[in-house]
Write a structure and sequence with these properties.
It contains 13 helices and 17 strands. The chain has 436 residues and is α/β, with parallel strands linked by helices. The chain has one domain: Thiolase/Chalcone synthase (Peroxisomal Thiolase, Chain A, domain 1), CATH 3.40.47. A 6-stranded mixed beta sheet has the order 2-1-10-9-7-8, sandwiched between helices. Strands 11-17-16-12-13 form a 5-stranded mixed beta sheet, sandwiched between helices. The protein is globular. The protein starts with a strand and ends in a 5-residue tail after the last strand.
């Protein structure tokens, strides 16, 4: 069950600010402000703006944390507050050696709290601490290795995002990072749900984070010719499914869901916003960066998620909305469209499909966490976020992409797609709690 949502995106700080901008069709894309872009082919991105980490992290500690960790801490804190989560000490193990059959203190306690060892954190990222890789390399070259910070390694490794969240809050359950490019956040959510199903935790904070609006990040993707170069109109540059699209737009931020075991959430009286009922994952085995033209790997991924959802009583015809991976790249948008039509057949023409990357940019490892959150919010509010900048549809992209304006609807279930370099694919299905 999803009982909390936390967001930190180019559209705003927090769940409400992001959602209001999203359904208003606003763009979070603008000129890059953090470094001189005069030598770059792309000079714009979706930056997180106005975040002061010292309002929720000690100033000295914040100095040593990379932005990708700070974004995750912010989103996780909001998700916990939104869910009203309370924690309590873990039960003491009996003294001496391991005792077979010793009962775990599972589930919510009478006071509505969870034992801290039953709360876990899975936060994925694609690249980790790029900001500190760059600054530390500059220090190494200009001042020598003796002047490098002892914090360098902890600053850059991906698992510091869930690690810092846990050590700041005392969560002692399962803790790890999934690194699968643009599928990282979605993998983290799917695997967190499986962790609860196995009985290894009662509560999981799960999602993704990323902070790659840096010279290395922009320069690297420019070298691949993957980014839009529409520098004269950045707010119109991310245009999934449009005939004039010329590449994706870099974004950054974090999206985190708080997942709880169903009966425990109900016993403590938590507000349930949706249930994660389907999780599918696959590999293309096709190319390092390009999907097969027929989206075959994405097809298998969506079918797996739909089979999983069917076991929870959700039928394919219950799906009313797909938050597409929709990156605004030539091949990717067409392959995903072909895959959706293959999986949903005649129903595909009745589906609403939108790409919120048209407004946020591509958050890379954070995309799956943010876009899963958007699906949950769409279910909660009965509003579908639009695909903005869709002015001249590509003839090969011929579905209902909710062009340019949000749409009110009665929504029963939604599917979120996340596909990444290396040919890795994830689909998640969320259902309204009244259906499960």
């Amino acid at each position: 069950m999803v009982t909390g949502i936390g967001l930190c995106t180019p559209l705003g700080l927090g769940r409400d600010a992001t959602w209001q901008a999203l359904i208003a069709g606003q763009s979070g894309i603008g000129p890059i402000t953090r470094f001189d872009t005069s030598q770059f082919a792309t000079r714009f991105a979706g930056e997180v703006k106005g975040l002061d980490p010292t309002t929720f992290i000690d100033k000295r500690e914040a100095k040593h944390l990379d932005p990708f960790v700070i974004y995750a801490v912010y989103a996780a804190k909001e998700a916990v507050t939104h869910a009203g989560l309370k924690i309590s000490p873990a039960p003491a193990d009996p003294p001496g050696p391991f005792v077979p059959g010793h009962p775990l203190d599972m589930g919510v306690r009478e006071d509505g709290s969870y034992p801290c060892d039953r709360i876990g954190v899975y936060i994925g990222a694609g690249l980790g601490g790029v900001t500190h890789i760059e600054s530390s390399h500059t220090t190494l070259l200009s001042k020598g290795p003796g002047r490098m910070s002892p914090y360098f390694v902890p600053q850059i490794i991906v698992n510091m995002a869930p690690g810092v969240i846990s050590l700041r809050s005392g969560y002692k359950g399962p803790n790890l990072s999934h690194v699968s490019a643009c599928s990282s956040g979605a993998h983290a959510i799917g695997e967190a749900a499986r962790t609860i199903q196995r009985g290894d935790a009662d509560v999981m904070l799960a999602g993704g984070t990323e902070a790659t609006v840096t010279p290395l990040g922009i320069g690297g993707f420019n070298a691949m010719r993957a980014l839009s170069t529409r520098n004269d109109e950045p707010t119109r540059a991310s245009r999934p499914f449009d005939r004039e699209r010329d590449g994706f737009v870099m974004g950054e931020g974090s999206g985190v869901l708080l997942l709880e075991e169903r009966e425990s959430a109900r016993r403590r009286g938590a507000t349930i916003y949706a249930e994660l009922v389907g999780y599918g994952l696959s590999a293309d085995a096709n190319h390092m960066t390009s999907p097969p033209a027929d989206g075959e790997g994405a097809q298998r991924c969506m079918r797996m998620a739909l089979r999983d959802a069917y076991r929870h009583g959700i039928r394919p015809e219950d799906i009313g909305y797909i938050n597409a991976h929709g990156t605004s790249t030539k091949q990717g948008d067409i392959a995903e469209t072909v895959a959706i039509k293959a999986v949903f057949a005649d129903q595909a023409r009745r589906l609403a499909v939108s790409s919120t990357k048209s407004m946020t940019g591509h958050l890379l490892g954070a995309a799956g966490g943010a876009e899963a959150s958007f699906c949950v919010l769409a279910l909660q509010h009965g509003i579908l976020p639009p695909t903005i900048n869709l002015e001249n549809a590509d003839p090969e992209c011929d579905l209902d992409y909710v062009p340019n304006q949000a749409r009110s609807t009665q929504l029963r279930a939604a599917l979120s797609n996340s596909f990444g370099f290396g040919g890795t694919n994830v689909s998640l299905v969320f259902a309204a709690p009244s259906l499960t």
